[in-house]
Write a structure and sequence with these properties.
34% of the residues lie in helices and 28% in strands. By secondary structure, it is an alpha+beta fold. It is globular.
Length: 50
């Protein structure tokens, strides 16, 4: 199961609105707001997910 690393929402990769590849890992985001937060401080959210 995949989760939006910003808000924690469970994500279906086939239906995710936004997909970002960061340092070789794929992250699925639910909305433009989460995308903006992730892009601003990706290390904060990568650590949160792992």
């Amino acid at each position: 199961m995949h989760y939006d690393p910003v808000c924690g929402r469970r994500m279906n990769p086939n239906r995710a609105h936004i997909k970002i590849i960061y340092k070789g890992e794929t992250y699925y985001l639910c909305c433009p707001e989460c995308q903006a937060r992730f892009e601003e401080k990706p290390e904060k959210y990568v650590k949160k997910e792992k």
